[in-house]
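#lab-general

N.A. 3:47 PM
ok so I finally got the sequence cleaned up, no stray characters, all 277 residues accounted for. can someone with queue access submit it? mine expired

B.Y. 3:52 PM
send it over

N.A. 3:53 PM
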Amino acid sequence: MNTVRSYLIDLTDLADYLQQEGEVLIDQLTIHDLRGWLAANYERNLAPATIARRAAAIRTFTLWAHQRKQLAVDVGAQLVSPKVGKKLPSILRVDQASELLNNLSSSADDPQAIRDSAMLEIMYAAGIRVAELVGLDIDDIDFSRNVLAVTGKGNKQRYVPLGIPAMKALVIYLNEARPNLITKNSGAALFLGLRGKRIDQRVVRAVVAQVLADNELLDIGPHGFRHSAATHLLEGGADIRSVQELLGHASLATTQRYTHVASERLKSVYNQAHPRA
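B.Y. 4:20 PM
back already:
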């Protein structure tokens, strides 16, 4: 519904522009008219994302008009959208992640708190998606090798190593918390909600939001822990192919954006610390 409303606003704006230019009729519409309208949007300092959406709306409209023979040629097909820059993901600093997780483990004194501590340790240690976290079963943990079997997108499975803090948090959760949460409906699910069923993604997101708020940190969401893990690995010297495999990215291009985050952080440190920056 919001998309339809936005498209109507875009078409109305185009109609107003065409009227100002001399009441151009639909069957007289040209690519020059459309480019002129987009140029006017640029002059109004509209965001690139807004202009890109407007270009998409007009392409949809001219295709519709052409199919109904109101336009001899689909002139909108020639309209190129501006490139929208991708925003770099927000992440935690290494010291922030370490302090947050240490605070969680030291304050975990009830089943829910112990569970939450283990979940965040796993998210940061393994860099897994929230959907992958809630889908974990007990049998996915290989305690002999400190490895986690993660089922990702497309039902593809990958094996992710876990560090000592994450394994320790898991053991404490399995020994001290999960037995108090388990019910006949728990099955093999690793992380359980308060009713004993497999924990829901919404609960995980709420936990993350609360923990970040308690530590006066930006709400980066569960995916922010994944972004942080990837960036910290690259900053620590990990090669990008290994990080790609760890995260389960099908394309290396998806992983490469974390190199931009790492380089931006390094530039910031350089500018603050280097005597000749």
